[in-house]
Amino acid sequence: GARFSAETVVPSIVAIGMVRELGPVLGGLMVAARVASSIAAEVGTMKVTEQIDALVTLSTHPMKYLTAPRVLAATLAVPVLVAVGDSIGIFGGYLVGVNRLGFNPATYLKNTRDFLEVWDIVSGLWKGAAFGFIVAVTGCYYGMNSGRGAQGVGRATKAAVVAASVLILATNYILTEVFFSA
After folding, report:
1. Which of 37, 41, 44, 85 is the right S-S partner for 143, CB 3.0 to 4.6 Å?
2. Is the dihedral of CA 41, 158, 141, 79 positive or negative?
């Protein structure tokens, strides 16, 4: 198990990889697939059935009424999902390291704590917040701009998921450069 200092390196790679990159990106992509499509479909259907026009008629600003709560919710919820994903990923690495690779449990935990810094965790949570914001704004944008009819809503839903996924990957690259370029 300790060949090539794996007992020292594996916990650090698992912890840093999960917290900095995998947790935020995979969490963001999962939310993009589920939430961006849901928001785009819901808002698009509201547009097709003229509910958004009814909101305007009632002097209610549709962007404030429909977009703000969704954006706030996603921006706050995705970091929680990222934290849960990080914890599960690190625990999974621990189980594999200890049960499959024969690492000493105390050494694994010590090496995880030694290599993982607070900034790694904070940066991953900030990425999660950014990805949540992107997902909600993208879903709302494509929903508000969907074409007429069920076909238009379907196209908007698909476009929202693709756009949110691409934006998450691009934003991850930029944020990683900003957070960790030294």
Report:
1. 44
2. positive
